[in-house]
Design a protein that fits this description.
The structure holds two protein chains of two kinds. Helix content of chain A is 19%, strand content 19%. Chain A contains six helices and ten strands. In chain A, the strands form four sheets. Chain A has a three-stranded mixed β-sheet. Chain A is globular and about 50 Å long. Helix content of chain B is 72%, strand content 1%. Chain B has 13 helices and two strands, in the order E-H-H-H-H-H-H-H-H-H-H-H-H-H-E. A two-stranded antiparallel sheet of chain B has the order 1-2. Classes of the chains: A alpha+beta, B mainly alpha. Chains A and B meet through strand 2, strand 3, helix 2, helix 3 and strand 10 of A and strand 1, helix 3, helix 5 and strand 2 of B.
């Protein structure tokens, strides 16, 4: 089991400029319209005068136990042993979109051709590229994810989780321990200094 | 659009549309038609007259035919939805994730369709079926037009195939009963496919399977029994099946309202509340009017009126006018059941709301 790779996100440094989302589209040549491997959501909390907006940059969370993998009929989606990155083999995908429903983050995307594509932590360039790519842990010069490369405020980082943990505050690290994804999210520090913002995975619904 | 709520991110959804709703609906109709077909055969021997025996016999054959037609069209709708339909045709070696309900369902449908198709051949073809002319045998008439040198080659081929392969009556019945269970499996699978995911409160594991099972059998029964009513006129069998359908509708309505009540009661779950809101706003027409009004309450009321009128006023149903009125009434009732069944799948797909991401 190679070291797990993931993202680190600090909403305090994110200005919601969408450079990450555009850089991603650019690098992977995804079609115009609603094919967004990465997107920025702005969340409002509270009411005036305690109103606050939080920008959240979202992509595939490269979950520890990805629900998309569980439902894919052809095993086209894989949680790689070598670096923990979740990839899609588009040669195996039948385009049923079951993974789209299974993912709680809305990460799987479908272009005109109807096959699934999503963030692969820039294992390679192009839609769906990366399923057969060498592990990030052994690549000579692993590609810096475009979203990280273009982030104006340095709110996004990518790398082995161990290295990302060095960037994280104690609060973010504690939160990450209970987090079923490979994304470390920094709590947001409001003007009062204490309001914490964190993208929480929805709790599995017990009907 | 969902209401903008404080501190949450609503996740984009609706990856499935009309074709999948149609597929889920037709899967239910197919399984339900087959169950109805087998039940009609099993009660055929206890018919009170030759007319009723004939009506049950026809019902059984129509169910056999419709189950194959419905699953065929439904599978077509499913394949049309796929991004790479040709890859799906290689499911036997490509569908390797046996933990996925999509794979379990594929095998259920394949086995069921194969059995139902073989059964259709045994029910419609063979030397003993030659010369039969009742309504459902239009299949033979149509195939009889395909002739080479005056010989109906396709019909002859199917007759010969049926004669060679048809098992003895008892074994045939046993195979059909097994097929009925498979048919119910197909209906239930369409609900398991959805409720296996925890992202949408509307796709609930407790309520969806019984709801779809009731609806599937009810819609399959409606499609099947409408046929002898259309082709042969009103019989006691058409009426009796309508009463059985009423029982299914009452149970289905109970489950549906309990489910709605359950979602409404989950005040702490924003997605449940958003689902209820959408059922009462954007989807109020398909849900309250389409499913509940047209699909459940109206057929129930029609059946009540027709059954009550027959019992209370001693109407002479043998008179041509009354016969035609009741015949049209039952055909309309069964049609509405089908409309409601379709709207149920439509609403379940389109009104599903994903659990939002929270920022806390």
């Amino acid at each position: 089991m190679g070291e797990q790779w993931g993202f680190y996100f600090d909403p305090n440094s994110c200005m919601g400029c969408n450079a990450c989302a555009i850089a991603c589209k650019n690098r992977h040549g995804t079609e115009a319209g609603h094919v967004d491997w990465r997107r920025v959501e702005t969340v409002s909390t509270g009411e005036f005068p305690d109103y606050q907006e939080t920008n959240v940059s979202l992509s595939c969370m490269h979950c520890e136990d990805p629900p998309c993998v569980d439902v894919c009929p052809t095993n086209a989606i894989e949680k790689r042993e070598s670096d923990g990155i979740v990839t899609i083999d588009r040669d195996e995908c039948i385009g049923c979109r079951y993974c789209g429903w299974a993912c709680p983050y809305g990460a799987p995307q479908y272009g005109e051709e109807g096959l699934m594509q999503k963030c692969n932590l820039c294992l390679d360039k192009g839609p769906g590229a990366g399923a057969d790519a060498e592990s990030k842990n052994t690549q000579d010069d692993p590609l810096e994810p475009a979203c990280v490369d273009e982030c104006v405020g340095e709110a996004l980082h990518a790398g082995p989780i161990g290295e990302l943990m060095d960037l994280a505050s104690d609060a973010a690290a504690r939160k990450f321990e209970q987090n079923p994804t490979s994304v470390i999210v920094e709590p947001q520090t409001g003007e009062e200094g204490q309001a914490a913002a964190n993208v929480e995975t929805p709790i599995p619904y017990q009907g | 659009m969902l209401a903008a709520e404080s501190g949450v991110i609503w996740v984009p959804r609706v990856h499935w549309g009309l074709f999948i709703a149609t597929y889920l609906f037709l899967g239910g109709v197919s399984g339900g038609s087959y169950v109805t077909s087998v039940s009609a055969q099993l009660i055929r021997g206890r018919a009170s007259s030759d007319v009723e025996w004939q009506s049950r016999d026809e019902t059984s054959r129509w169910g056999s035919l419709l189950s194959v037609v419905a699953i065929g069209v439904g599978t077509g709708a499913l394949l049309y939805h796929l991004g790479a339909p040709l890859r799906a045709l290689t499911f036997a070696w490509n569908f390797t994730n046996y933990g996925s309900w999509l794979v379990i369902g594929t095998w259920l449908i394949v086995i069921f369709s194969t059995l139902a198709t073989l059964d259709l051949v045994w029910n419609f073809f063979g030397s003993e079926k030659q010369g039969r002319t009742s309504g459902s045998f239009f299949v033979r008439r149509i195939l009889g037009w395909i002739a080479i040198g005056g010989e109906p080659v396709v019909l002859n081929l199917l007759d010969r195939f049926s004669d060679i392969t048809k098992p003895p009556q008892k074994l045939h019945t046993a195979i059909r009963v097994f097929g009925a269970f498979l048919g119910m499996g197909v209906i239930v699978y369409t609900s398991m496919l959805l409720s296996d995911l925890w992202t949408c409160p509307l796709w609930n594991r407790t309520y969806l399977p019984p709801l779809f099972l009731m609806s599937g059998i009810s819609t399959g029964l409606a499609a099947t029994v409408a046929m002898p009513a259309i082709f042969d006129g009103l019989t006691e069998t058409v009426h009796q099946y309508s009463l059985a359908d009423d029982a299914l509708i009452v149970v289905e309505l109970g489950i549906l309202l309990a489910f709605y009540n359950f979602l409404q009661g989950r005040t702490g779950c924003m997605a449940s509340q958003a689902t209820v809101d959408s059922l009462n706003s954007v989807f109020s027409m398909p849900f309250w009017v389409g499913v509940v009004g047209l699909g459940l309450l109206t057929p129930l009321a029609m059946s009540l009126v027709m059954t009550g009128a027959s019992a209370l006023f001693d109407l002479d149903e043998r008179s041509h006018t009354w016969h035609q009125i009741f015949r049209a009434g039952y055909v309309l009732k069964y049609s509405l059941v089908l409309v409601g069944g379709f709207f149920l799948r439509y609403v379940i797909i389109f009104a599903a709301v994903k659990l939002p991401l929270t920022v806390a």
